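As a next step, the fold was encoded as tokens, giving this record:
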Amino acid sequence: QVQLVESGGGSVQAGGSLRLSCVVSGRTSSINSMAWFRQAPGKEREFVARIPWSGGVVYHADSVKGRFTISRDNAKNTVYLQMSSLKPEDTAIYYCAAQYGTVAGYNYWGQGTQVTVSS
């Protein structure tokens, strides 16, 4: 199994930038994919971006495409979400998730980090 710890959240004005980090520990060899999700108050959890753990095509949700970039540094066992041109509607708790083993979907989650964008 694996453990995920996010950091990097905070408060920023619209148009600003933040970089979220997700440090992964444990049996990383069994990870297939990593992703970022977010959940705003009163809303359902929303997919943001995903990246294969061993390399390959990344995917970003339309709502963040061109503004957010997911990346990884396997040497540091860390996945990043670079967020630019932030909007108030990006305000949410951001979660890192791992697709581990043969289970379909993301089965390991971090505790989340709050991102607040003010207008």
Observations:
- DSSP finds no helices and eleven strands in the chain.
- The first strand starts at residue 2 and ends at 7.
- The CA atoms of residues 110 and 118 lie 25 Å apart.
